[in-house]
Amino acid sequence: MLLPAKAEVARQLRRYRVWERAMLASPHDRTVRAAFEDSGYTLCVLMGKRCAREAADAAERYLRTNLVAYLREQDGRPQRRRASRSTSPPERRSTASSP
């Protein structure tokens, strides 16, 4: 998985936040709305998310964690621990009835 440079993510997140504040201040201004939606779309593309809110949250997590932790978090699976087998595997028994 390719991830964007943290500097670019930080820049786009700042841009998104600026337009978000402008949008809250002037919700009926079509120019502001278009710029806000554009910044949200850019963040979505960068972070691989479908929703601007999710993309902003992912960008914040990405900027505050290291790469390995972020990838594990995005994977959604807990970290696997290596288990050593010191005993033989348990015997398997058939569930079929005996004749």
Question: What features would you highlight for this structure?
Answer:
elongated; 61% helix; 99 residues; mainly alpha
What do these coordinates show?
- The protein is mostly helical.
- The chain is elongated and about 75 Å long.
- The longest helix has 20 residues, at 6-25.
- Helices cover 61% and strands 0% of the residues.
- The N and C termini lie far apart (55 Å).
- It is built from 4 helices and no strands.
- It has one domain (6-75).
- Helix 1 runs antiparallel to helix 2 and helix 1 crosses helix 3.
The best one-word shape is: elongated
Using only C-alpha atoms, the radius of gyration works out to 23 Å
Helical residues, percent: 55-70%
What is the count of DSSP helices, taking H or I runs of 4+ residues? 4
Ends distance: 55 Å
* Whole-number count of domains: 1
Number of strands: 0
Secondary-structure-based class equals mainly alpha
Q: What percentage of the residues does DSSP assign to strands (E)?
A: under 5%
Secondary-structure map with pairings?
Blueprint: H1 6-25, H2 30-47, H3 52-64, H4 67-75
Helix pairs in contact: 1-2, 1-3, 2-3
Outline of this structure?
This protein is mainly alpha-helical.
